[in-house]
Amino acid sequence: MEPIWQKAPIAQRDAHAKAHGCVKAKFAVAEGLPPELAVGLFATPKSWDATVRFSNSERIPQSDRTKDGRGMAVKLDGIEQDFVMINHPVFFVRNAADYIDFVEGEKKNDHYSFFFGLRPPWRWRLHELWNGIHIKGHPLRSPLEERYFSMTPYKLGTRAIKFSARPCSSQISTVPAQGDNVLAAMLANGLRNGEGCFEFQVQLQGDPHAMPVEDPTLEWDEAKSPFRTVARITIPAQTPELQNCENLAFAPWHAQPDHRPLGGINRVRKEAYQRISTLRHDRNHVPN
Ligand code: HEM
Question: If exposure means fewest CB atoms within 10 Å of the residue's CB, which of 8, 78, 94, 204 is most exposed?
């Protein structure tokens, strides 16, 4: 079997350990946005250089042929702003208390007790299980052809939103590839002669009962509030690097005040990303 990960640093990410590529990109805000969208970064049609890391969700690098969620993390240059996304609209944990239950199971290497509580209080979490199965259930396709979602809500000024990156309609179709690192190969194939392109979109919260901030396992209905384009992410033709993003940290709380994360799961993430990233950088003897 071909090596799944070469030249791995000593300490990898605790989640999304395997990258398919680290690419240079442009993040350009759309012109003429209506007032409800022209907020914070999107207030004027500005553009930033950006770095994008595509990844698998698992904490251990494994074959891309094993079912898994796929990540896209975007970092804007010259301003503290990251956008961290996965190729599915909903998460599999509702809140911080449930996250503790999930971690307790994982610590014992028991991946099912969170979903099937076989001891008091006998709590079954079938909705969460359904989401978990679907996060991992997407067919294998190029990282340039996936649609990615924030899953959890963020601010857009005084409003709550979720965000998403959707491949542009002009998306080139990438050549399929073989092997365990098929996604890195598809990404490289796609960027050999063509460019990658995503519409960066936001979905405004409507009715807070139907579109809650505090439960990211529930999808906000796109029929009631569609995702609307506020920027374009362009990835010019290039040879993706594997290592260039490994000493970076992409995190939801790397955000401008107008775009700061909302909800309990994002509050858990504040501490988790910071601590793990510090540990990772310390162990690798590189600045954080
Ligand atoms: C309580 C919930 C969560 C916890 C504790 C958590 C934790 C982490 C940690 C520790 C990392 C590695 C950070 C580093 O070493 O720099 C990470 C990476 C990542 N997480 Fe989460 N996560 C959570 C939820 C989510 C959700 C809801 C998403 C959905 C968008 C997500 C998407 C990602 C992605 C895409 C990366 C990789 C970023 C990169 O390429 O560097 N995570 N997560």
Answer: 78
Which residues are registered as beta bridge partners of 225?
Answer: none
Tokens standing for residue 133: 């199965």
If you ran DSSP here, which 8-state letter would residue 30 be given?
P
**How many whole angstroms separate alpha carbon 265 and alpha carbon 286?**
29
At 180, the amino acid letter reads D
What's the rounded Cα separation, in Å, for the pair 29 and 159? 19
Pocket lining: 102 vs ligand 1, CB cutoff 6 Å: no
Answer yes or no: are the C-beta atoms of 183 and 70 closer than 8 Å: yes
Gap between the Cα atoms of 121 and 134, Å rounded? 26
Say yes or no: CB of residue 147 within 6 Å of ligand 1: no
Stretch (H or E) spanning 282 = helix 264-283
* Contact 84 CB / ligand 1 (< 6 Å): yes
Tell whether the model's pLDDT for residue 233 goes beyond 70: yes
Q: Are 199 and 108 in contact (CB under 8 A)?
A: no
The amino acid present at 277, given as its one-letter code, is S
Site of tokens 């384009």: 229
**Index of the ligand 1 atom closest to the CA of residue 268:** 1
Does the structure show a pLDDT above 60 at 98? yes
CA of 193 to the centre of ligand 1 (A): 31
Largest CA distance in the chain: 58
Mean pLDDT of 41-59: 97
Tell which residue, 239, 272, 281, has the closest CA to residue 9.
Answer: 281
Averaged pLDDT for residues 75-90: 98
